[in-house]
Amino acid sequence: MELPEGCIADILCRTTPLDVARISVISKIFSSAADSNTIWEHFLPSDYRSIISMSPSLANAPSKKAIYLALSDHPIIIDQGKKSFQLDRKSGKKCYMLAARSLYISSGDDEHYCHWVTLPESRFGEVAMLKVASRSVICGKINTVDLSPNTQYASFLVFKLINAHGFHCKPMLLWINISGGPICSKAVCLDLRSKGRDNIFKFRNVRSDGLLEIEIGEFFNSGLEDGEVEMRVMMIKGNGSFYLEGIEVRPKILIT
């Protein structure tokens, strides 16, 4: 005897969006249940209505599944262009990017070291074109209540190099701190040709949008209390330059 579609939908709500996609191919009744608004509203964040109100194109989405897929396919710009929001397709966890305009940049008021320009690859209207100054600092903060609870997160500096050689053997110092917790720090070198010391990590990823990213650090968001995560990048004096897109905070993908 087959289970009623409503029962199947209740069961699927206890899985993940990725599991629902896999299970939907079992049979027609599973496929129908997997399209249920009940399931996809369960996977959407509780504040999704206020988020999609900032994106007119989502106001007339035909279903909750369509909203979920739209939010996971493309970031939407919020907070007057200073932040973007997206859902992780597999888990439904929240992802944010803090635009360069929302960050503290120590040289941001000095036109010799910082210019605001447009960049075709950027999701934001403008990015910072930075020339490294002595002890240049970039700092971003995000509140833990804005993130998904019970989730391991990682933060990433998102950028595009202009003069990579200018960072030769000149590491960046990266650290991340959540209110009341320990500070996690490391050093990285943006010039992959650098032959630095063993404790200097030379690692960066090319993103799907063509920009580069390098992990600042990770943290666990319990969701039990209101807290703040601070992410900081300190650049040693050099003659390197790069475009700063922002700092992205997204769920950590664990490989088992």
What labels describe this entry?
elongated; Jelly Rolls; 256 residues; alpha+beta
Strand residues, percent: 35-45%
Number of strands: 15
In CATH, the architecture of the largest domain is Sandwich
Tell me the count of domains: 2
Looking at the structure, the CATH topology of the largest domain is: Jelly Rolls
Order of helices and strands: HHHHHHEEEEEEEEEEEEEEE
Oligomer: single chain
User: What are the low-pLDDT stretches, counting only 5+ consecutive residues below 50?
Assistant: 196-201
Q: Let me know the CATH homologous superfamily of the largest domain.
A: Galactose-binding domain-like
Overall shape: elongated
Structural class: alpha+beta
* Amino- and carboxy-terminal Cα gap: 36 Å
Residue-averaged pLDDT: 82
Largest sheet at a glance? 9 strands, antiparallel
Helix content: 10-25%
Tally of alpha and pi helices: 6
**CATH classification class of the largest domain:** Mainly Beta
| Gyration radius, rounded | 21 Å
What does this molecule look like?
Helix 1 crosses helix 3. The chain has two domains: 5-74, no CATH class; 96-251, Galactose-binding domain-like (Jelly Rolls). The model is unreliable at 196-201 (pLDDT under 50). The protein has 256 residues and is of the alpha+beta class. The strands form two sheets. Strands 1, 2, 3, 5, 6, 8, 12, 13 and 15 form a nine-stranded antiparallel β-sheet that branches. A six-stranded mixed β-sheet has the order 4-7-14-9-10-11, with no helix packed on it. A hairpin with a 5-residue loop joins strand 12 and strand 13. It has six helices and 15 strands. Helices cover 17% and strands 36% of the residues.
